[in-house]
Amino acid sequence: MKTLWSREDPPDPWLEKFLAGDDPRLDQQLVEHDCRASLAHARMLQDIGILTVDEFTELEDAITEIRELAEKGEFSITASDEDCHTAIENHLTAKCGEAGRKIHTGRSRNDQVLTALRLWEKQQLLALEECLQSHIAALKAVCKRDGNIALPGYTHMQAAMPTTVNNWLGSFVASTEDDRLVLTAVEKIVDQCPLGTAAGFGVPVLKLDREQTAEELGFSRVQENPVYAQLSRGKFEGLFLGACSQIMLGLNRLASDLILYSTREFGYVHLPRRLSTGSSVMPQKRNPDILELVRAQVHVVLAEEQKVKAMTASLMSGYNRDVQLTKAPLMNGVQTTLDCLEAMRRVLTGIEIDKERCAAGLTDDVYSTERVLELVATGVPFRDAYRKVAAVESKRR
Question: Domain boundaries in the chain?
C-alpha cells in the first residue's frame, strides 16, 4: 500500500521501515483518538458543504468499524502505513471510495497527529489525577490510623528530633497536593485543539469551523496560532513529563524512607508480606524489590523528559520530523509514573507502623533540642542553653 506522501516512484521498503520506527506499535494507543478526531472533522466538513450527508454516513460507519477492530486488537498498522493516521485513512478510502479520499480536506497529517496525541494526553492526565487522589487517600489512611505515633526525625541520616507519623507521611501528602497543581497547569496548557492548523500555516480558501471540532472533541479552546501548533509539539510533551518527574521525585523519596525504616535495624515499618520477595539462597530474606524499582524509576522518567527536550532543542520553527521520536519517551514516561503510583498505593495500603520500635528509636539524646528550649523558656539565652545541653550530651558519649 502506498504511503500518503509517496508520488510516482515506489518508496524504498527499507526507508518505509526506518521512517515508521516504533510507530506501528505505539500508535495502537492513538487509534481511538484519531477516530474521534476524524469523525469530528468529517462532521464539520459536512456542515460546510465539503461532504454530503451520505458521504458522512459512510465515513461514520467505517470509523465505527475501525474502532470495533481496534478494541479487539485486530486493526493492523504496517510499516508501509507508517502510523495509525495513514492506516485509518487508507481503510476509509478502501471502504468509502471518494468520501475516504475527501476526509483529509482541510487538515494535514501534522495537525492530525497533534490532535490525536493531544486527546491521548488529556486522557492520561485524567488517569494521573485519579492515581494521585488514590495515593493521597492511601497516605491519609495511614495517618488517620497511626498518625499520633511518635518516631525520630532525621537530618544528615542522624536521629535529630522527635516527629510523628502524621508529620512524616503528611509531608508526602502536601508534596503530592503540589504535584496536582503542576498537573492542573499542564492540563490547562494541553487543552487546546490544533485541528485545522494543517501543516502549521492554517487552511486558506476553506472556511473551516475550528470551534465546532474543538467543542465536539472536548477542548476548552482552539490553538489559534498555526505555527505555534507545530512549535508546541515537544514543548507540551516536555511539560507533561516534567509533571511526571515531580510526581516521581516524591515517590522516590518515600520509597527510600520505607526501605530504610523497614530494615531490621530500624523496624519502624513492616511492609506487606504479599508485596515482598525472597532470596534464592537466603530463606530468611524478605526484600522490598517493589520499592527499589519505584525508587529507580524516577531516573527513567527524568531521562525520558530530557530526551524530549533534547530532541526538540535547536529545531527551527515549523514541523520537523525529529518530533516523531518524542512519542516513545512520552508514552513510556507517563505509563511508568502511573505504574509507580499504583505500586506505592498497594504498599501503603498494606504497611504497618511498629509503635514499640518507633518508641525505642526515641533515645534520650533526640530530646536535646527540647531541653535547650526549656532552658530558654526560663530566660536563659539560646546560645548559653545550647552550650549547656551540648556539654551534658558530650559527657554521655
Answer: 13-105, 110-205+221-361, 364-396
Cβ atoms within 10 Å of 129's Cβ, excluding its own: 14
Can you tell me which residue has the cell 511508568?
Answer: 336
For strands 269-270 and 221-222, give the pairing. Answer: unpaired
105-115 residue pLDDT tens: 999 999 999 99
> pLDDT band at residue 1, thresholds of 50, 70 and 90?
very low
Please report which residue ranges of the chain form alpha helices under DSSP H: 13-20, 23-26, 31-47, 53-71, 84-96, 98-102, 109-146, 165-190, 210-216, 226-231, 235-261, 289-312, 327-350, 355-361, 368-377, 382-396
d(CA 69, CA 46): 25
SS3 201: coil
Which position has the grid cell 509503635? 355
Q: Is 276 a catalytic residue?
A: no
**CATH architecture, range 110-205+221-361:** Up-down Bundle (1.20)
- CB contact set of 376 (below 8 Å; sequence gap of 6+): 382, 385
For residue 29, give the DSSP letter. G
Distance CA 112, CA 40 (A): 12
The chain-wide mean pLDDT, for the chain, equals 94
Is 279 one of the annotated active-site residues of the chain? yes
Q: 375: which 3 cell numbers?
A: 532552658
Q: Which CATH superfamily is domain 13-105 in?
A: Fumarase/aspartase (N-terminal domain) (1.10.275.10)
H runs (alpha helix) in 147-209: 165-190
The predicted-structure confidence for 283-293, as pLDDT tens digits, reads as follows 777 899 999 99
Helix/strand/coil for 363: coil
- Residue 3: pLDDT over 60: no
- CA-to-CA distance for 232 and 190, rounded, in angstroms? 9
β-sheet bridge partners, residue 156: none
Q: How many CA atoms lie within 13 A of 1 on its CB side?
A: 18
The reported pLDDT for the residue numbered 8 is 64
How confident is the model over 357-376, as pLDDT tens digits? Answer: 999 999 999 999 999 999 99
Predicted pLDDT of residue 277:
82
Catalytic residue among 6, 76, 220, 279: 279
